[in-house]
Amino acid sequence: MAVLPAAMTLLDAAKLGDDGAFEVLLQPLLEPGYRLAGGMLQDHQAAQDAVQEAAFKAWRKLRQLRDGSEMRPWFLGIVANECRSVRRSRWSSVVKVLQPAQSEANPADSVVRGIELRNALRALDEKKRLALVLHWYLDLPLDEIATITGSSVHAVEGQVQRGIHELRQRLEEHRG
After folding, report:
1. Whole-angstrom Cα distance, residue 43 to residue 55?
2. Secondary structure (3-state) at 163
3. What's the DSSP call for residue 17?
4. What are phi and psi of 169, to 5 degrees?
5. Which residues contact 173 (CB under 8 A, 6 or more apart)?
6. Cβ atoms within 10 Å of 12's Cβ, excluding its own
7. Which of 1, 44, 94, 170 is deepest in the core (most CB within 10 A)?
8. For residue 166, how many C-alpha atoms fall within 13 Å in the half-sphere facing its CB?
9. Which of 118, 112, 122 lies closest to 175 in space, CA to CA?
10. For residue 96, how many C-alpha atoms fall within 13 Å in the half-sphere facing its CB?
């Protein structure tokens, strides 16, 4: 890393092309980004690919980050957009068809409940799923979720509440 003027921040240095500064800024965001992608895509490999692509896009678009903005909601927004792109892609549906069938052995109840929950989450519309994943998987506050999604806090509150209600309904229908 080059010697920087004292008044220059890490973000300023990264915006000027300092790869080391960008790595320092990005490193703590990769794990939450992966948890978000995992929750949205429900596929380990697709989540890794989405975060990798999001990191590349963040590096390319770093100069677009407004002064005074925080990098975490900005980066998680890029991850969320990448997950949307993956889900819309033709290959996403092909991969689902080609996945091997699950074993018919009697799995533990907790495993079955986890699968039921993932299926119910997958069935939610994208906005509710994103709000729930950000809130429950990443434990983000509603105002930060609003920043990431470009929504109001009130809209995010509604998406979380409706998403929880819909998840409960789906799980009850599946069990009943």
Report:
1. 18
2. helix
3. T
4. -60, -50
5. none
6. 14
7. 170
8. 18
9. 112
10. 12
